[in-house]
Design a protein that fits this description.
single chain, mainly alpha, two-stranded parallel ribbon, 8 helices
């Protein structure tokens, strides 16, 4: 089972802005084995992202933050540090992909997170090793 399949079983509604859906589609066209599950509702931003915001963040992260603010969504899922800091600075709660997997483990959807994090790292996703070890240790791994 893939990490995304597990995360979608969590008791949350998942939405993403059109910009993120577009990034995923571009990744698929480049051969990345990722698709946007139909359980994720794609929403259009009510306003264009400011050029100032786009100068600091990539369009996907900027759109996630703006969508959360527009839709009064309290928590966003962002893994990259610049996006996390920006979301926190405007009062949003932030969780990363590992945090969602941790939630899946605590409610019994999966038994281990380490293999999924290792797979992500092998695919090129960077996580601070000390942070990963501390996180996994806190979950009994």
């Amino acid at each position: 089972m893939q990490a995304f399949d597990i995360i979608l079983q969590l008791p949350f509604d998942f939405v993403c802005p059109e910009e993120v859906a577009r990034e995923i589609l571009i990744g698929v066209q480049k051969g990345h084995p990722v698709s946007l599950p139909q359980e994720v509702k794609v929403l259009k931003l009510s306003q264009a992202i400011s050029r100032l915001t786009l100068a600091a963040l990539d369009s996907g992260e900027a759109a996630v933050i703006q969508l959360a603010l527009e839709q009064n969504i309290e928590t966003v899922c962002i893994d990259e540090i610049k996006g996390r800091r920006a979301a926190l600075s405007v009062g949003l709660k932030v969780v990363g992909s590992p945090g969602l997997l941790g939630r899946a483990k605590t409610i019994g959807l999966i038994k281990e997170i380490r293999p999924l994090i290792t797979k992500a790292q092998q695919a090129g996703i960077f996580y601070d090793e000390d942070l990963v070890n501390s996180f996994l240790s806190s979950l009994g791994e």
